[in-house]
């Protein structure tokens, strides 16, 4: 994975302080250790699931589902997987009914994921599915040790797995939360972690990623009031759900009160997919208010060689320039053209992430890159990156409403 940055920052003292803070943070924040974990217990667990199980279904929301979904949807188009993976992550009744119509309950294993063990959305869905299929062997529960969910699972003799200590939901994709469903589908979780480890080692051991991430984070922090909207413009449909994961990670981590002031700060994430969003949101970036930065993501090798055929269409002869062009080359030419147009504007900060190919290692690198970037920016804009009091406030009000329903 490469990151080309087209803007500069000169705050060396600030960058060094941020690096030292993140280095120290490894002692208390659990996600930093995930690339180095022993995955043998996870592999052993997956082997206990009967071969007759054809489908894995995650019942969870937010950090309990978005990361695994991002990886699964990235890998699924280019790899023949052992099982299909579904996500029950909404209380939309039509969505629940539609998903249930697509699976065979008797041949599905459900992963019920809730860090707190009391997530309302998760358990409203679980209660409904359990009313249709009450075999405890069809469920595995993933939660914090000692949570109400663990107590419930033990009471019905169902399997329970734990989240690692001090790993928040939106940083949990490389833990049991993401690795279990992905491994059960045949995704190479070892390669996923190896990709994350490459970024970790490069950053903490003064490799290429150290200056790259520090420069980018320092720039975002320095101009966070001017360029307070960060657009991730990914040129592949397979990255759609990665963009959704990024939106949660960025928004929930960085939209806060500052720790040492009364100011509200935050960076607004927007996920875009090229080339289709060239025909919608690009106009706003190009000629709208100068409050947006843009990161492009390109894939060099799509693992697909389909080519535009050598066909001439009457009255459309000018489009013969497309003939013989591989689609993967066309989509990257579209990306490069938009980047060049924005660079010509000179007041829109952009950078590009280049992914060599569609595989687990590169997705692992991309995930850990964004987790590190989030932590660095949070440190530099002086917020607690790992809490979410705004989300908790809404949960409290909902619980009060449910008592009076």
TrEMBL record:
GO terms for molecular function: carbohydrate derivative binding; glucose-6-phosphate isomerase activity; monosaccharide binding. It holds the Pfam family PGI. It is found in: Cytoplasm. The active site is at 252 (proton donor), 279, 395. It is an enzyme of class 5 (isomerase). The keyword Isomerase applies. Pathway: Carbohydrate degradation; glycolysis; D-glyceraldehyde 3-phosphate and glycerone phosphate from D-glucose: step 2/4; Carbohydrate biosynthesis; gluconeogenesis. GO terms for cellular component: cytosol. GO terms for biological process: gluconeogenesis; glucose 6-phosphate metabolic process; glycolytic process. Keywords: Cytoplasm, Gluconeogenesis, Glycolysis, Isomerase. InterPro entries: G6P_Isomerase, Phosphoglucose_isomerase_CS, SIS_dom_sf, SIS_PGI_1, SIS_PGI_2. It comes from the Bacteria. SUPFAM superfamilies: SIS domain. Its main location: cytoplasm. It catalyses: alpha-D-glucose 6-phosphate = beta-D-fructose 6-phosphate. Its EC number is 5.3.1.9. HAMAP family: G6P_isomerase. Belongs to the GPI family. Catalyzes the reversible isomerization of glucose-6-phosphate to fructose-6-phosphate. This is Glucose-6-phosphate isomerase. The gene is pgi.
């Amino acid at each position: 994975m490469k990151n080309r940055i087209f803007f500069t920052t000169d705050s060396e003292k600030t960058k060094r302080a941020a690096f030292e803070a993140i280095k120290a943070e490894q002692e208390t924040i659990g996600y930093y250790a995930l690339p180095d974990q022993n995955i043998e217990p996870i592999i052993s667990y997956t082997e206990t699931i009967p071969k007759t199980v054809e489908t894995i279904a995650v019942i969870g929301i937010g950090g309990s589902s978005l990361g695994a979904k991002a990886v699964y949807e990235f890998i699924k188009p280019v790899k023949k997987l052992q099982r299909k993976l579904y996500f029950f992550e909404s209380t939309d009744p039509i969505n629940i009914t539609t998903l249930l119509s697509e699976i065979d309950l008797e041949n599905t294993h459900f992963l019920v994921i809730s860090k707190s063990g009391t997530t309302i959305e998760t358990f409203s869905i679980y209660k409904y599915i359990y009313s249709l299929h009450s075999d405890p062997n069809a469920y595995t529960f993933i939660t914090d040790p000692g949570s109400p969910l663990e107590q419930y699972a033990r009471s019905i003799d169902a399997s329970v797995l734990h989240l690692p200590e001090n790993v928040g939901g939106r940083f949990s994709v490389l833990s049991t939360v993401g690795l279990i469903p992905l491994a059960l589908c045949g995704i190479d979780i070892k390669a996923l972690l190896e990709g994350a480890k490459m970024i970790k080692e490069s950053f903490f051991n003064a490799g290429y990623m150290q200056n790259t991430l520090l420069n980018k984070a320092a720039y975002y922090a320095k101009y966070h009031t001017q360029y307070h909207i960060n657009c991730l413009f990914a040129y592949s449909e397979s990255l759609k759900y990665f963009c959704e994961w990024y939106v949660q990670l960025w928004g929930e981590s960085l939209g806060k009160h500052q720790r040492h002031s009364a100011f509200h700060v935050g960076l607004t994430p927007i996920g875009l997919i090229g080339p289709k969003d060239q025909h919608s949101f690009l106009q706003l970036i190009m000629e709208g208010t100068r409050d947006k930065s843009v990161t492009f993501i390109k894939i060099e090798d799509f693992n697909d060689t389909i080519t535009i055929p050598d066909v001439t269409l009457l009255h459309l002869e000018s489009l013969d320039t497309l003939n013989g062009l591989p689609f993967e080359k066309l989509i990257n030419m579209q990306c490069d053209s938009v980047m060049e147009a924005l660079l010509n504007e000179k007041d829109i900060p952009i950078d590009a992430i280049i992914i060599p190919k569609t595989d687990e290692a590169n997705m692992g690198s991309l995930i850990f890159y964004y987790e590190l970037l989030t932590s660095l920016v949070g440190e530099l804009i002086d917020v607690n990156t790992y809490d979410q009091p705004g989300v908790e406030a809404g949960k409290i009000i909902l619980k009060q409403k449910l008592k009076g329903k």
